[in-house]
Write a structure and sequence with these properties.
Blueprint: H1 13-24, H2 37-56, H3 58-62, H4 71-96, H5 102-110, H6 128-148, H7 154-182, H8 186-205, H9 217-222, H10 230-248, E1 258-260, E2 265-267, H11 273-283, H12 287-300, H13 302-321
Antiparallel strand pairs: 1-2
Bound molecules: Phenylacetyl coenzyme A (FAQ).
Length: 322
Amino acid sequence: MPETTRPLPTDDPTQVAAFEARIAAGESIEPKDWMPERYRRQLTRMMSQHAHSEIVGMLPEGNWITRAPSLRRKLSLIAKVQDEAGHGLYIYCGTETLGVDRFDLYNQLLDGTAKYSSIFNYPTLAWADMGVIGWLVDGAAIVNQTILAKTSYGPYARAMVRICKEENFHKRQGYEICMTLAKGTPAQREMLQDAVNRFWWPSLMMFGPSDTHSPNTAELLKWRVKRKTNDELRQRFINLTVPQAQELGITLPDPDLRYNAETKNWDFGTIDWSEFQEVIAGNGPCNRERLEARRAAHDEGRWVRDAAAAHAAKRSQATAAA
Ligand code: FAQ
């Protein structure tokens, strides 16, 4: 039975109280520290979904590497996609500090039982999508991950500090593509506007369901895994992004978007949560394609894993014989 579906053992209340006192004191929880089983499972769930997102997130942009409009653009896009692979590996390592095997987690991705971010189930139809993904998708990831850099689990927090530095660079390269297109020909501006129209609402969905429909938030806030709610982070992202859209001279596809002088927030329209539910249930525009691509990559890499295992076995035999 996979570890994550085994019945939850009952934790010792004295240990739980001591753990919660440490959390309340702002202490960082480290791999060898005692932690409630439920805390460990919540982190495993969240971190593995995050790692899967980074790896699946390579696909929409990987789609444009061969079609980048110049050598400079191609180089920076390859570097960005490579960075996402690094983030995935880094976070899988983080999950292993919780006592799980990354291959078990990876198998859950391949067999379709694990979630990954909804945003990567949308197609990348034009070059402008590369700019908009960098600007909006990495922008949303930064808002979420800057707060996660203060999460209570030490290895995850440290991973986020490092990853956010690279995500900031990704966002800048994306925004620079958007700027270039915004200052370009009418056809380039139109291509940019179309990409923003397609990616705006899915970017808002990255923050997860609204707080009233988020089953995990209360527990994660209690243990300071999350430091802000989904809605708080979504609002922060919108407040930061609207002025950037104005700077580009493009329209965000929401007729209800307006500044509220009282709350100092940008009010926005209703998110289509039925679309979100469909996408996370596996029925988004590219879910099937994304999983097929990951499965093919896994199969094609089998010889590398076999060779590494054979090499390790040979070395251990040589060590035993010495
Ligand atoms: N997509 O109770 P909540 C990136 C699920 S990295 C799919 O609110 P929670 C970098 C959720 O898992 C992007 N599923 O859940 C990059 C739960 O299902 P479960 C990934 C979603 O955990 C850029 C259920 O709905 N970032 O972009 C989504 O408290 C460019 C109920 O939701 C992270 O993973 C969604 N959008 O809050 C790479 C950050 N939202 O497991 C390449 C870490 C919710 O109970 C190119 N994660 N669900 O069956 C988090 O911050 C949180 O886990 C949330 C969800 C905020 C995603």
